[in-house]
Amino acid sequence: MKHSQNEIERPEVTQRIIELLDKQNEKGLKKYGITIDQVSDMSYDWRLMALEEATDLIQYLQKEVIRLERLLNPI
User: Which has the closest alpha carbon to 40: 32, 52, 31, 30?
Assistant: First the structure.
C-alpha cells in the first residue's frame, strides 16, 4: 500500500480497527443524528454504559469459543 509522505503506513490490524471505528461512528450518527463528541457529558452514565458493553463483549467472546469448540470437536 503506497502512502504520501504525510500518511502513516499502518499495520493491517490497526487499519481494521480504524475502519470499525468509522463504521460504528457512521452507525451512531445515523441512529442518533449526532456524534459522540456532541453528546452532553451528563447525558449518560458512561461507566455503566461501558460495563454493559463489556458484559456484551464477554458473552460474544464466549459464544465464539463455543462455536469454535463445536467446529473443532464435532459430536
Answer: 32
